[in-house]
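[User] Could I get a sequence and structure tokens?

[Assistant]
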Amino acid sequence: MEDAMEQGKTGTFVRQLRLKLSMTQEEFAHALGITVSTVNRWENGHSEPSKLARASIVGLAEKRGVRLDPETLEVAGGRPPAPGYEAYAR
């Protein structure tokens, strides 16, 4: 199991990706077939996406033109999306 620092890192990445995709938590949750509270828990580092959820996140990102590594959820061939999309939150 990942330590709290890694969990927080994954949560930050999920949030940055969602914002890069210009999606609200509600839209992101709906697209993945999960609840808004699950997205919120991921983003706040209270839980981690399962392997199935990671695969869904990768699929959603790829549909929108962003290639991700399914294990790390990092942008394939590059770094995670840069912060700065806060204006699109919720």
